[in-house]
Specification:
168 residues, mainly alpha, two-stranded antiparallel sheet, 61% helix
């Protein structure tokens, strides 16, 4: 490799790292993107990780070490400080949410975050199909013979994930 290319690459790396870290401190970070790019290599999918390794004790999210403050751990474990509370809330929600999207929807819709990013928009506080403009709630009434409880479950899940992917 010629010297000039090596110098160019070495100058780009610090800039890329600076851009990467600066984007995390901006309000409105896509938490699923953050997890996928910062945590997934070691910990896998956030919901799978949360359900396997975390639990709720006295209303608080706990890891394997009960004395450990999970928020403090997140702050010291490569999490951007501005996003610690949001990551904690996301993991807490995932611990308490049954993995139904993965089991029932992922064959067609990949993950809930992928589905939200690619197919859903939030319009006046309502989830709407990016392509048809139709209300997701209305569509679900004729989708896969979902009953009222199923629709409520998936609407709650998709609304939560939409807030995690597109926070305001």
């Amino acid at each position: 490799m010629p010297r000039i290319q090596s110098i160019g690459i070495s100058r780009c790396i610090p800039l890329a790292i600076l851009m990467l870290f600066s984007s995390f401190s901006i309000a409105g970070t896509d938490l699923h993107w953050l997890w996928d790019n910062r945590c997934a290599e070691c910990h896998g999918h956030s919901a799978d990780f949360a359900r396997q390794f975390l639990h709720i004790s006295d209303g608080q999210l706990q890891g394997a070490h009960p004395a450990r403050d999970l928020k403090l751990f997140l702050r010291n474990h490569y999490s951007p400080t501005a996003e610690v509370d949001a990551i904690y809330s996301m993991l807490l929600a995932q611990v308490t949410t049954a993995p139904r999207f993965k089991a029932e929807c992922s064959n067609c819709h990949d993950s809930a975050s992928w589905f939200i990013r690619n197919s859903i928009i939030v319009q006046d506080g309502e989830l709407v199909s990016r392509y048809s403009g139709k209300s997701v709630r209305e569509f679900m009434q004729t989708h896969r013979k979902l009953d009222r409880d199923d629709i409520e479950f998936f609407m709650n899940l998709l609304t939560r994930v939409a807030g995690e992917v597109n926070p305001r």
